[in-house]
Write a structure and sequence with these properties.
Number of domains: 2
Helix content: 10-25%
Strand order of the largest sheet: 1-6-7-5
Radius of gyration: 21 Å
Number of helices: 6
CATH superfamily of the largest domain: MutM-like, N-terminal
Structural class: alpha+beta
Order of helices and strands: HEEEEEEEEHHHHHEE
Number of strands: 10
Largest sheet: 4 strands, antiparallel
């Protein structure tokens, strides 16, 4: 699933290509909106909200989309070959005289009134990349249920919006705890530092094509644990573990991260190495 920084970057690409221009082509390939015609309307802006994309269009309309696991928007120049996937995967086409935006495999696509945007994004917590980012509120929501495992709390977009599976694993590693440790056992200052780190990492990566959470000392290795099953931890050398027993794949280092592990793995009790 795309993380908040990927969605932010996608929104900037769409905004640059479409905002301030009149639609000359409109094709929403969802039965409910198959007859909707947006041609002749101006695209006002494209705004990310957590993992949601809000394309605001003249006349008080918003095209709401969510990428979920493998959805994507691609922007092409007029006449350029579309490379995002086969034609049957296309769910939306928005074209102007200067560019065309094509949405592939979009599991969520809805045309709503701009005045009703709160109905689709109003439940979200503070947006890590939003102009109204509120770290204190994010900490309050994250710690509201002390018994909840950290990984679940981080992925809950009602707590803070923008964290996906990659950042869940990386943030837990940087906090030196497993994703299954209850939030109430993090320690007095850890939630604040964890939220601050999440904000810093997404801000640092929002303009990049390649995501990085490691420091320069790691060389070409961009991530500490995610996708590194069986490889040595960059800090302690212990082999990184992977768990697939839940809804999401989880990676962690049993040498660096204290806290419980899934039943398929031995419990971890190690303390952080730095």
């Amino acid at each position: 699933m795309p993380e908040g920084d990927t969605v932010w970057h996608t929104a900037q690409q769409l905004h640059t290509a479409l905002a301030g221009r009149v639609l000359t082509r409109s094709d929403l390939r969802v039965p409910r909106y198959a007859t909707a015609d947006l041609t002749g309307r101006e695209v006002l802006d494209v705004t990310p909200r957590g993992k949601h994309l809000l394309t605001r269009i003249g006349g008080g309309l918003t095209l709401h989309s969510h990428l979920r696991m493998d959805g994507a928007w691609h922007v092409y120049a007029p006449g350029e070959h579309w490379r995002g996937g086969p034609a049957h995967q296309i769910r939306a086409i928005l074209g102007t005289a200067e560019a065309v935006a094509v949405g592939y495999r979009l599991p969520v696509l809805a045309l709503i009134r701009t005045a009703d945007e709160a109905e689709v994004v109003g439940h979200l917590g503070p947006d890590l990349l939003g102009p109204d980012w509120d770290a204190r509120e994010a900490v309050r929501r994250l710690t509201a249920d002390p018994a909840r495992p950290l990984g679940e709390a981080l992925l809950d977009q009602r707590n803070l919006a923008g964290i996906g599976n990659v950042y869940k694993a990386e943030l837990a590693f940087l906090a030196a705890v497993t994703p299954w440790l209850p939030v109430g056992e993090l320690g007095p200052d850890v939630p604040e530092r964890l939220v601050a780190t999440a904000h810093r990492l997404l801000e640092a990566n929002k303009d990049r094509f390649g995501r990085r959470t490691t420091t320069a000392r790691a060389g070409r290795v961009p991530l500490y644990v995610y996708g590194r099953e069986g490889r040595p931890c960059l800090r302690c050398g212990t082999a990184v573990h992977k768990d697939e027993s839940g809804d999401r794949i989880t990676y962690w280092c049993p040498g660096c991260q204290r806290g419980p592990a899934p039943a398929a793995h031995a419990p971890t009790t190690a303390t952080p190495t730095d």
